[in-house]
Amino acid sequence: MPAAQPARALFPAATQRVPATHDTKSMSHPNIELIERFYTAFQQRDAETMVACYTNDVVFSDPAFGELIGEEVHDMWRMLVKHAQDFSLTFSDIEADDHNGRAQWVARYRFSQTGRDVVNRIDARFVFRDGLIVEHRDSFDLWLWMRQAMGIRGTLLGWSPFVRRLLRQQARRGLLLYRGQLGR
User: Fold this and answer.
1) I want to staple 62 with a disulfide (CB 3.0 to 4.6 A). Which of 76, 136, 138, 166 is the partner?
2) In CATH, what number is assigned to the domain containing residue 79?
3) Which domain holds residue 48?
4) Cα(140)–Cα(62) distance, integer angstroms
5) CA–CA distance from 20 to each of 93, 97, 138 (Å)?
6) DSSP 3-state assignment of 36?
7) Is the pTM higher than 0.85?
8) Each residue of 67-94: pLDDT tens digit?
């Protein structure tokens, strides 16, 4: 008599998981494939493919930019990809179902304003609608990022809500300047 298969193998969970190697199976969930397409495009610095993974009214947030909506999100990725220096990215631990998803990703790059190397470990959460990403929320340790990007100033002041607000204002100003160059 054949050995009984675990119930898990017969009835997979609604949420599927991709191991760190991001070696997908032919049966992977379409939203796992969407997240993989997004980060593969990011690895290749292909902002237009990244943007195509989003709805037109996408909401994005992270500790540096705060909350952005729609074309602001699209242009943020275009700007970041365009200005990335010594950039590399890895992603792993993708999970998704019909409505929600998550992934871990690590960006390594040179911060252009100081020339300092940064390794940023990010936890991403997604909400999907009609086969696209409608909400994307990245979280990471902003103080650790500031210590890497700004050195001693980031170490001493990066915990301060005032300095964090200044950083967000500076990031948003950079995005506004970039969008102005595009005529938006």
Assistant:
1) 138
2) 3.10.450.50
3) 13-141
4) 8
5) 5, 18, 18
6) helix
7) no
8) 999 999 999 999 999 988 899 999 999 9
